[in-house]
Amino acid sequence: MLRARLKPPLKKLGIRxxxxxxxxxxxxxxxxRIVVKVGSSLLVDHTQGALKxxxxxxxxxxxxALHREGCDVLxxxxxxxxxxxxxxxxxxGSLRLxxxxxxxxxxxxxxxxxxxxxxxxxxxxxxxxxxxxxxxEERQRYLNARETIGKLLELRAVPVINENDTVAxxxxxxxxxxxxxxxxxTMASADLLVLLSDIDGLYTAPPHEDPNAxxxxxxxxxxxEIEAMAGGAASEMSRGGMRxxxxxxxxxxxxxxxxxxxxxxxxxxxxxIAEGGRxxxxxxxxxxxxxxxxxxxxxxxxxxxxxxDEGAAKALLTGASLLPAGVLRLEGSFARGDxxxxxxxxxxxxxxxLVAYDALEAARIAGxxxxxxxxxxxxxxQSEMIHRDDMALGSE
Length: 396
Ligand code: GLU
What we know:
Bound molecules: glutamic acid
Radius of gyration: 23 Å
CATH architecture of the largest domain: 3-Layer(aba) Sandwich
Strand content: 15-25%
Strand order of the largest sheet: 3-4-2-1-5-7-8-6
Structural class: alpha/beta
CATH topology of the largest domain: Carbamate kinase
Number of helices: 15
CATH superfamily of the largest domain: Acetylglutamate kinase-like
Low-confidence stretches: 1-23, 233-239
Largest sheet: 8 strands, mixed
Helix content: 25-40%
């Protein structure tokens, strides 16, 4: 069960102007898994190209405080290009793709080391994850990344994620970490994404152009009007302007993840949000579990069928995973991560799910006890044929 609950019905929230008191946004304490995205311009000093260590130390204090309360914390950190270009003494201004990639190769080393040091000094282990657009869109890679993240979190480590800039060509690049962070958040079934930015939220108009622009504290739904407010501006160091943030908000909220944009330039920026500081909340009426089940049930083309026995069918209805032991037979040439239909002994469809094995492997372990998987396949494997979290039953 997710702990995040929104007190008032979302419909009643409307768009509020900053001058009115904001009393009905969710409290950070209500979330169990939070992704915090840190932009380059916050982490790297604009003039010197050096890391802002003091600021980062204070942010680490905020993250550790969440972690101590039992929250799973993930960081999506930019900064590799900004740091690397200093080390490589690349000229100011825009870089060519291969220059950015060279800068990222150099900068990522110190970025990851720094995160590891600041979190390590507070008793937390950091794990580096570099992903590309493909890794979050192609289902097998997506599942692998999801499982790695899940395991790190289970071990109470903090995944520190960035785009794998050195291998990503223009077509397979996100290019901005706002959308990457949103994909990571939905992939990790996070219930909150915090975008720390160089602006404190979404304004009715670009604030540097329009003196009457006001901050919107709560966006219950991303309407055409909200999209129009985004403009296109990006600061020099960070790639993502408000447009990519709105794109990120769409990805996050569709995946059942709330999102907040807040000013990261202050010391202890996450604590500031927790204390009710200025920011914009993008709310979702869903949650990651429901959104994922909807995605599995509705948007994926099934590649095969698993016929299960009566006992397994009953067990699924009580919330269990599908184990190989309950499988009678399989049809289709599916790959690990594909969606397959689950049928009961009478042939009725009872649900769909993402299968943990390729068709050939699945056939070999069908009907067998999970303890036998390693002996049969010659390697240890997941004990479930379809994990509970990867399954949507018709009754749900
Ligand atoms: N992945 C890039 C970096 O680490 C940054 C992209 C962004 O700032 O959005 O430098």
